[in-house]
Amino acid sequence: MNIMRKLTSTLFCLLCLAGCYPKNGAIEQEATSKILRHIDRQAERRKRNILNSKSELTPTGTIYYFSAEGDDNNDGLSPSSPLHSIAKLNSMELKASDGVMFRRGDIFRGKINTREGVCYSAYGKGEKPRIYGSPYDAAQEGEWIETQTPNVYMYSQELADDVGTLVFNHGECNAIKILKVYHADGTTTNVYTDEPFAGAGDLKRDMDFFHDYQDTKRLYLCSTQGNPKERFHSIELLTKGNVISATDKVHIDNLCIMYGGSHGIGSGTTKSLKVTNCVIGWIGGSMLLPASVTGSRDARYGNGVEIYGGCDEFVVDNCYIYECYDAGITNQNQEDISDSSRTMRNIAFTNNLVERCEMSIEYYLGAQNKPTDSIMENFLIEGNILRQAGYGWGKQHPEPAWASHLKSWWMHYNQAYNFIIRNNVFDRSDANLITVVAGKQEWLPKMEGNTYIQYLDADGGRIGCPWEDFKYDTYFQAAAEGKLREKAGKYFFIEK
Predict the structure, then answer these.
(1) Quick check: 170 and 233 in contact, CB under 8 A?
(2) CB atoms < 10 A from the CB of 202, how many?
(3) 135 CB-near residues (< 8 Å, 6+ apart)
(4) d(CA 130, CA 120)
(5) Which helix (H) or strand (E) holds 286?
(6) Can you tell me the distance from the alpha carbon of 72 to that of 85, in angstroms, rounded to the nearest whole number?
(7) How far apart are CA 120 and CA 249, in angstroms?
(8) At what angle do helices 28-51 and 8-18 cross, to 10 degrees?
(9) Is the CB of residue 48 less than 8 Å from the CB of residue 39?
(10) What is the pLDDT of residues 227-240, one digit of tens each?
(11) Predicted pLDDT of residue 32
(12) Rounded CA gap, 238 and 146, in Å?
């Protein structure tokens, strides 16, 4: 098509620099397919390295060992006398410099409350130990009981904590949470179909579910292909709450953290939180703000790693994060504040692979049009491979056009100093490829060497100060260089 021919000179230079322009003179689309295959290989290598990373933390204090075959009556002081449960862990009086080690290859169910100054990692050989926020595998424990409504089954176990979604067969598919929209006349409708919806009796579509967590505390699933327990060999429940709640001076390393309805790792204002060599997946979707007035609906949330508030030394490095309802990694605070506890300093998100989250990296500080003295300072986003924002299960967001690989929003000052975003890959988004704005031009990040891949004429970005919306077309490179001072960027176009 004509516009693709207009891109020839730009693509030729960029693809030659990347070493992927076809020598036989084939059309640019073939070259773009080649760069996508190259990114596929890069991502697979990154994932493999993260999955096979070694546990090298050496706590100087007491080390406690946990295994699936342990006993909570043991002392836990050696791999031969391990403790067993997260409930036991949460009851222990750990000291700064202590270590908690989970045996590789094991599954531990529950939510961890960390202790200041303690590190949490793995021992033994094999796959990373798995920390599941899901209280049960609902295909193995409990029953699915037929209701009077055709194809609708009720789970027998009481679930008082709101469920964000159900994940079937370890990620083959997931359920869709039906929310009510409340109207001024007192009626309620299905947020997706606009049909009348009062509760479980109105479920109709396969894989839709409703959780009556406030009253009956029962979960209902529409399964048009029979009893869920017979249909699936695994059903994990993303119940509300952080899988790991972090505090000051905590290091979380080499854990697989999954199936939580709030955040994989979540914290308020925190000093020195390090997350390294972890796998974090299938996170979020539970209720943040239940509807309180007519004409509204419930709001949902859930991030892979989050600090909400101030921070000093926040590191997320060499992690694989995927399928989060909201963001893979985020530091954020939006209140009108002026105390130094909300200042965000010494942040590094580096060498991560983030895939199929609604937002790959989200950051923001300070509500627009409200005075704030708080700042972001010494902030580095480098070497990350960020892929397919908005293509995961978070796509069931009722809000359109939320997806983005970088998400600073557009109603915040984002006052920042020494803020650098370099050598990252931004590979396709269902909405904006990036959203990078600030209250003043000098607060925008310095961008260098980033790779941009997006569908031709799709949304490129909401960027700059004052911010503007740009399509991903022949003008996007000039916009990135002019608005964000991007240097040595590479730009690839995919024809739909």
Answers:
(1) no
(2) 20
(3) 109, 110, 157, 159, 237, 239
(4) 12
(5) strand 286-289
(6) 7
(7) 11
(8) 40
(9) no
(10) 999 999 999 999 99
(11) 75
(12) 22
| Euclidean distance between CA atoms 353 and 366, whole angstroms | 28
Q: Which residues pair with 99 in a beta bridge?
A: 63, 119
Q: What SS3 state is found at 72?
A: coil
Q: Is 31 helix (H, G, I), strand (E, B) or coil?
A: helix
d(CA 462, CA 471): 9
User: What DSSP state is assigned to residue 223?
Assistant: -
Mean pLDDT in residue range 254-260: 98
Q: Is residue 429 classed as helix, strand or coil in its secondary structure? A: strand
| Whether the Cβ atoms of residue 457 and residue 473 lie closer than 8 Å to each other | yes
Q: Which residues pair with 317 in a beta bridge?
A: 276, 350
User: What beta strand segments (E) does 51-118 contain?
Assistant: 63-66, 99-103, 107-109, 112-113
Q: Please say whether the beta carbons of 239 and 161 come within 8 A.
A: yes
Non-local CB neighbours of 369 within 8 Å, separated by 6+ positions: none
Half-sphere exposure of 58 (CA within 13 A, CB side): 1
> Does the pLDDT of residue 4 top 90, yes or no?
no
3-class secondary-structure state, position 333: strand
201 three-class SS: helix
Give the integer Cα–Cα distance in Å for 433 and 360.
10
Q: What is the mean pLDDT of the chain?
A: 90
d(CA 82, CA 165): 33
**What tokens appear for 202 in the block?**
């109105």
pLDDT tens for 40-86 read: 999 999 999 999 999 999 999 999 999 999 999 999 999 999 999 99
With contact defined as beta carbons under 8 Å apart, do 261 and 282 qualify? no
Place of tokens 């990296």: 361
Q: In the structure encoding, which two tokens stand for residue 153, read together?
A: 């089954």
Task: Encode pLDDT of 186-210 as tens digits.
Answer: 889 998 999 999 999 999 999 999 9
What 8-state DSSP symbol labels residue 367?
A: B
User: Residue 3 in 3-state DSSP?
Assistant: helix
Neighbours of 170 (CB within 10 A): 15
CA distances from 114 to 231, 245, 467 (A): 37, 6, 40
What's the token pair of residue 31?
């070259």
CA-wise closest residue to 346 among 365, 331, 336:
331
Q: CB neighbours of 83 closer than 8 A, spacing ≥ 6?
A: 64, 65, 66, 70, 71, 72, 74, 76, 89
| Confidence at residue 181, expressed as pLDDT on a 0 to 100 scale | 87
Q: Which of 347, 380, 364 is nearest to 415 (CA)?
A: 364
Tell me what pLDDT residue 20 has. Answer: 37
